[in-house]
Design goal:
alpha+beta; Alpha-Beta Plaits; five-stranded antiparallel sheet; about 15% strand; elongated
Length: about 190
């Protein structure tokens, strides 16, 4: 790989790192070609972009963007590295977990994940990454929480209105049954 090709790869990676707020750094060293192909298909199906690049080129691309922002990722750049880029911070973790279950293995191994400015290092953080709530899930929960009190107030008002309507109907029924007559004699005072 000559210098021009390396610069092209660095520019491509810089574009990906700028485009996505979330990326995973994984170790795919012991996977067969068939397994890597299967992993790529799984990523494609879930709209996760997978790139394999040399660690030094990845590091140069990250350093040229913001050397301090990505500082926690540098130590994970060793062995064979595959990058998983996604808009959804949870999806790559789910792909890795399901791929491991299907293949009964420990690969691909999570080396690091960069999620909205936070760095998660090591394979032990994979489980917690699968439980991260997406932006849409959080918005749904907030909307549900906001709607809940309003629904209770509306239900109480409707129940109160129905109760009053039912009470008014019985009072109206009583007045139609026994109308007050103005000619009735007044009760004697004692």
């Amino acid at each position: 790989m000559n210098k021009q090709e390396k610069n092209e790869v660095i520019e491509l990676l810089k574009g990906k790192f700028s485009q996505y707020n979330n990326f995973y750094v994984t170790d795919t060293e012991s996977l067969t070609v068939a397994q890597v192909g299967k992993l790529r298909r799984a990523c494609f199906d879930k709209q996760v972009e997978m790139r394999v690049a040399k660690n030094t080129l990845i590091k140069k691309a990250l350093e040229s963007l913001d050397s301090t922002k990505y500082e926690g990722v540098y130590e994970s750049l060793h062995k064979v590295t595959a990058l998983l880029f996604s808009e959804n911070p949870k999806e790559p973790a789910l792909i890795i977990s399901s791929f491991r279950k299907e293949s009964n293995g420990q690969k691909p191994e999570l080396k690091a994940a960069f999620i909205n400015g936070d760095v998660y290092s090591g394979d032990e953080s994979l489980k917690s990454l699968t439980q991260i709530k997406t932006k849409n899930e959080l918005i749904g929960e907030v909307i549900g929480l906001l709607q809940s009190p309003a629904k209770r107030v509306l239900a109480a008002l409707l129940h109160h209105h129905e109760k009053q309507a039912a009470g008014g109907e019985t009072a109206a029924a009583e007045t139609t049954e026994a109308p007050a007559t103005p000619d009735a004699p007044a009760a004697p005072e004692a």
